[in-house]
Design brief:
Layout lengths: L3 E6 L32 E6 L58 H8 L3 H4 L8 H10 L5 H14 L13 H13 L3 H9 L2 H4 L4 H8 L1 H14 L5 H17 L2 H15 L6 H21 L3 H15 L1 H35 L4 E5 L4 H10 L4 H5 L2 E7 L2 H14 L1 E2 L5 E2 L12 E6 L5 E8 H9 L8 E3 L2 E3 L4 H5 L1 H12 L3 H13 L2 E5 L5 E5 L4 H8 L1 H5 L1 E6 L2 E3 L11 E5 L18 H33 L4 H4 L2 H10 L5 H9 L5 H11 L2 H5 L24 E3 L7 E3 L11 E5 L5 E5 L5 H5 L5 E2 L1 E3 L7 E10 L4 H11 L3 E9 L4 E10 L5 H9 L4 E6 L5
Parallel strand pairs: 4-8, 17-19
Antiparallel strand pairs: 1-2, 3-4, 5-7, 6-7, 7-8, 9-10, 11-12, 13-14, 13-15, 16-21, 18-19, 18-20, 22-24, 22-25, 23-24
InterPro entries: ACT-like_dom_sf (IPR045865), ACT_dom (IPR002912), Beta-grasp_dom_sf (IPR012675), HD/PDEase_dom (IPR003607), HD_domain (IPR006674), NT_sf (IPR043519), RelA/Spo_fam (IPR004811), RelA/SpoT_AH_RIS (IPR045600)
Protein name: GTP pyrophosphokinase
Function: In eubacteria ppGpp (guanosine 3'-diphosphate 5'-diphosphate) is a mediator of the stringent response that coordinates a variety of cellular activities in response to changes in nutritional abundance.
Length: 851
């Protein structure tokens, strides 16, 4: 039968893959072309009969059964959930199988026969020529034979597997590797990309892969495989994102491969059902595109956003696309006029530069229309020009030329060279008035900065030549990306995966402000951050002990909003018991601060539960007449903890305190270990050693309160109303079995007293160990060092300051509120009198929530 070339069109977005499969009627199949970042939307399929085995891993298809009719075999293990490749890129000119010159008949058979060559010789097959040519453009000494070996291995294991489009499955890893080659990634990453689906979709094992390709490739493939195992349900997805962060922190190339994998699947999303397409597009828009942005990979980010936008909002996408087509001629004319004028100005100043227009991306235009509420014409008519020069000095020289010849728009200049963004982005931004009074956005950067701006973290994975030896590894720039380290901290600290995912989503979507420490160090924070966010960004303990802040030399409330360029100074308490308040969760913006504050209160609640659990077990043992000294030992309790699958004795106490395990069940297990009640019987005199003084949160002090009719109970003074003698108080039994003491006029009193069965009578009984939480308010004329002077007086009065907030009114009145611990409430009057003597203070008094 006469051989034929079937030229079929595909879809899937701008840029993609040209896929060809030679076919007869039997045998394995491989693609005859590759995938790139950009190209046309044509795909090539060679079909016919009598061609024989064309290459390992290629399925030959007879004319009576065209490739388009093949589907993913559900038993093959191929990833049917991902979209099939639709052939969205032209074959690079380096390939002898380019569409324009594709031979037919006997010449096709002769050319295809060459695909057997790699199995007998170290030469590279033509199917890999485009990939290797692209890769060697940035890595001249790359090992082509290693790539060929990886491709051969992937083709063997994926033999018989197909994409939803009917294309051989090997086309997908080849396309992913080509995307990464265009980004300039190293050979190890490309090898991992070729093999990235073999572990999940075939019987190829990690141990064998380590033997075949080494531990580095295996680590990358294993990381990508773990990211692909997304289960249904928000919690499971959140846990998967957490795993992504762990894998990314070990080696960021894991995420780079994942992004390339998703990009190719988004290009070929058309073969999936509508619901699946929308799910993948939403996931891409919410998580993966912002992650690409955080890694500085803007070329990937822009295409992911546009492809996701097209699938989620097709009508809006088409409308914006139509508007772009209508406005394109006028915009290009204006752009040409501007770039020519800029080039002339720079040449006159003897600055060597390349001037181009900046493309507008559909999703970016849509976002600006929604967020800024602006008309399409206002956004699209804003011309963007990019100026590329050789050195940083040329950047600033070019800026001077631009501002000398064009009228700059006030407030629109940004220097990201002196102060790079979180993802290593560097550039000078300015807006000037162009022809016809239209604004023109200018970006000025070096060629090296441009590579980083386009490819981000991928731009820095370059071979290092060292005495003839080629070494590859993570660049020093990776260490500069503190965001990666922050992510790892969050995932360790966030107990709930969903909480971590929420924090990640917020961080990905938020803009940043840049503020300074008094020493001039730059601290990036989310927009609308507060001094508390700043304190936690400096150090966890600085955040926990923060009691006040000064911004640009002026005292401000802790909930104040920070702006770009602010200089922040934090005041901290020296008290060991100082800590955050629940109120802070209402105004902090950064995920780090929110996580640290919650972690603090979780730890505090756990400590309370541990103490309550100890009390419950001791009381239960006393009721049984059991000897505490002999039976309540660490070994005995550890045995019970293991039996209950708890980590340690503290976890056992906490479980009892939280009512997850009953104290009686612990006592019964202790008795069983001693042969029952008779074996455990002993004089109760032993139990005296095990008693402990009541404890309140934050220390080991006596609360100075007794409960009527009960001699041994855990008691805590409520922080909501901070009772001190001689306040009228009542007790409320908590869920953990302790008693919380409140003022009678507490804001929560009405709700608590409604639960009459939990209200108990309490009275004050001070001891030498008693301390009390007190809150005072100080009103003064605002002045320099006011807060420092007041805190010094409080320290002289020997009180432990726990928190402080300062608010300044329009009429320059500073209203400060302090919380501190003191041993003798009778001393409060003397303390207030001392504070009133501070210069500028005109009033100081105690405050409570009920007042």
């Amino acid at each position: 039968m006469e051989q034929a070339v079937d030229r079929s069109s595909g879809s899937g977005g701008a840029g993609g893959a040209a896929v060809g499969s030679a076919s007869t009627g039997a045998g394995p199949a491989v693609p005859v072309a590759s995938a790139g970042l950009a190209g046309s939307t044509a795909a090539t399929t060679v079909v016919g009969a009598g061609l024989g085995v064309v290459a390992p891993g290629v399925v030959a298809v007879p004319l009576s059964d065209p490739v388009g009719r093949l589907v993913v075999d559900p038993e093959s293990g191929a990833d049917g959930s991902l979209a099939a490749m639709a052939g969205t890129g032209a074959v690079p000119p380096t390939s002898s199988f380019a569409l324009a010159n594709a031979p037919t008949g006997r010449r096709v058979r002769a050319r295809l026969a060459r695909f057997n060559a790699p199995w007998q010789t170290p030469q590279v097959s033509e199917v890999l020529e485009p990939l290797i040519a692209t890769h060697r453009a940035s890595h001249p000494k790359a090992d082509a034979r290693l790539l060929q070996r990886a491709f051969d291995m992937a083709a063997r294991w994926h033999s018989g597997q197909y994409r939803k489009s009917g294309d051989p499955y090997i086309t997908h890893p080849l396309a992913v590797a080509t995307i990464l080659a265009n980004l300039g990634m190293d050979t190890t990453t490309l090898v991992a990309a070729l093999l990235h689906d073999t572990i999940e979709d075939t019987d190829y094992g990690l141990d064998q892969m380590k033997v075949d390709f080494g531990p580095e490739v295996t680590l990358l493939v294993d990381g990508v495989t773990k990211l692909d195992k997304v289960k249904l349900g928000d919690a499971a997805k959140a846990e998967t994102i957490r795993k992504m962060v762990v894998a990314m922190a070990k080696d960021p190339r894991v995420l780079v491969i994942k992004l390339a994998d998703r990009l190719h699947n988004m290009r070929t999303l058309t073969f999936l059902p509508l619901a699946k397409r929308e799910q993948k597009a939403k996931e891409t828009l919410e998580i993966l595109a912002p992650l690409a942005h955080r890694l500085g990979m803007n070329t990937i980010k822009w295409e992911l956003e546009d492809l996701a936008f097209a699938n989620l909002f097709p009508k809006r996408y088409e409308e914006i696309n139509r508007l772009i087509g209508e406005h394109q001629p006028q915009r290009e004319a204006l752009l040409r006029q501007v770039t020519q004028k800029v080039q002339v100005d720079l040449k006159a100043a003897k600055i060597k530069a390349e001037t181009t227009g900046r493309p507008k991306h559909l999703y970016s235009i849509y976002q600006k229309m929604i967020v800024r509420g602006r008309d399409f014409n206002d956004i699209y008519d804003l011309v963007g020009v990019r100026i590329l020069v050789d050195t940083v000095r040329d950047c600033y020289a070019a800026l001077g030329v631009i501002h000398a010849n064009w009228q700059p728009v006030p407030g629109r200049f940004k220097d990201y060279i002196a102060m790079p963004k979180f993802n290593m982005y560097q550039s000078l931004h300015t807006t000037v008035i162009g022809p016809s009074g239209k604004p023109v956005e200018m970006q000025i950067r070096t060629y090296a900065m441009h590579r980083t701006a386009e490819f981000g973290i991928a731009a820095h994975w370059k071979y290092k030549e060292k005495k003839g030896e080629t070494v590859v590894g993570p660049p020093a720039h990776i260490d500069e990306m503190t965001w990666l380290r922050q992510l790892l901290d969050w995932q360790r600290e966030a107990a709930d995966p969903s909480e971590f995912l929420d924090a990640l989503r917020f961080d990905l979507s938020s803009q940043e402000v840049y503020v300074f420490t008094p020493k001039g160090d730059v601290i990036p924070l989310p927009t609308a951050s507060t001094p508390v966010d700043f304190a936690y960004a400096v150090h966890t303990e600085v955040g926990h002990k923060c009691i006040g802040a000064r911004v640009n030399g002026k005292l401000v409330p802790l909930e104040s909003t920070l702006s770009n360029g602010d200089v922040i100074e934090i005041f901290t308490s020296k008290s060991d018991t100082a800590g955050p308040t629940q109120d802070w969760l209402g105004f902090v913006k950064s995920p780090r601060a929110r996580t640290k504050i919650r972690q603090y209160f979780n730890k505090e609640r756990r400590e309370e539960a541990i103490e309550a659990g100890k009390d419950s077990i001791v009381k239960a043992m006393r009721k049984q007449g059991m000897p505490l000294q002999r039976m309540l030992t660490s070994d005995n309790l550890m045995t019970i903890a293991r039996d209950l699958h708890l980590a340690d004795v503290a976890s056992l106490y906490a479980a009892v305190g939280d009512s997850q395990v009953s104290a009686q069940s612990v006592v019964q297990r202790l008795m069983a270990g001693y042969g029952g009640e008779e074996g455990a019987a002993e004089d109760l005199a032993e139990t005296a050693v095990a008693t402990r003084p009541p404890r309140r949160s934050g220390g080991t002090s006596d609360p100075g309160v007794v409960v009527r009719g009960v001699s041994d109970v855990w008691i805590k003074l409520a922080r909501c109303c901070t009772p001190v003698p001689p306040d009228s108080v009542f007790g409320f039994v908590t869920r953990s079995g302790g008693v919380s003491v409140h003022r009678d006029d507490c804001a929560n009193a009405e709700d608590l007293k409604a639960q009459t069965e939990r209200v108990v009578e309490v009275s004050w009984r001070l001891t030498s160990a008693s301390t009390f939480l007190v809150a005072i308010q100080v009103e003064a004329l605002d002045r320099h060092k006011l807060l420092a002077d007041v805190t010094r007086v409080l320290s002289d009065e020997r009180v432990n300051i726990l928190s402080a907030t300062v608010t300044t009114t329009r009429d320059r009145v500073a209203v400060s509120r302090f919380s501190f611990e003191m041993a003798d409430p009778k001393h409060l009057g003397h303390l207030l009198a001392a504070v009133r003597k501070v210069d500028g203070v005109f009033d100081a008094y105690r405050v409570t929530s009920g007042a």
